[in-house]
Amino acid sequence: MKKIILSCLLVLGSYLLHAQDRQAIIKLMDDQRLAWNRGDIEGFMQGYWKSDSLMFVGQKGPTRGWQNTLDNYKRGYPNKAAMGQLAFNILKVEVLDPTNAFVYGAWYLKREGDNSNIGGYYTLWFKKIDGVWKIVVDHTS
C-alpha cells in the first residue's frame, strides 16, 4: 500500500512541476509579446538563450547566435511601426523532461494603416538553463 501511495505522490509531484514549467514558458512568451508591442526588440530577445549556439530558422534559412538574431530582427523591423502589434496563439506546450520543452503555435502581426498583416507558425525548443527557461531553437515561418 505504501508503494502505491508513494507512486501516486510522485506522479502528482511530477504533474505539478510540469504545470509550473508550462506556466513559466507561457509567461516568458507573454513577456516577449509585451516587449515587442512596446517596440523593445532587446526586451523581446530576453526570452532567447544569449549564446552563439542559439539557432533561429526563418524564411532565409538558419541564423546562429543571439547577437546575429538580434541584428536580423533590427534590420527586418527597424522601428515600432514596422514591428506592429504581435499576437501568439500557443497551440501546444509539451514539457519533455525537467530541462527541455517543445512549443508550437501561430503568430500574427498587425500593423497600423497597413493591410498586409502577416503571420505564420513557429516551433520552439526551450531549455531550462540555470533554472530559467530560454528558447534555444526557434523555427518561424
Describe this entry's structure for a reader.
The chain starts with a helix and ends with a strand. The longest helix is centred in the N-terminal third of the chain and has 36 residues, at 2-37. The protein is an alpha+beta fold and 141 residues long. It has helices at residues 2-37, 41-44, 66-76, 80-83; strands at residues 55-58, 61-64, 85-97, 100-110, 118-129, 132-140. It is globular, with a radius of gyration of 17 Å.
Keywords for this entry:
6 strands; 4 helices; 141 residues; globular; Nuclear Transport Factor 2, Chain: A; alpha+beta; six-stranded mixed β-sheet
Q: Summary?
A:
This protein has 141 residues and is of the alpha+beta class. The chain is 39% helix and 38% strand. The chain has a single domain (2-140), classed as Nuclear Transport Factor 2, Chain: A (Roll).
| Name of the CATH class | Alpha Beta
In terms of per-residue confidence, which ranges show pLDDT below 50 for 5 or more consecutive residues? none
Percent range of helical residues? 25-40%
What percentage of amino acids are in beta strands? 35-45%
Furnish the topology, listing elements before pairings.
Elements: H1 2-37, H2 41-44, E1 55-58, E2 61-64, H3 66-76, H4 80-83, E3 85-97, E4 100-110, E5 118-129, E6 132-140
Parallel strand pairs: 1-6
Antiparallel strand pairs: 1-2, 3-4, 4-5, 5-6
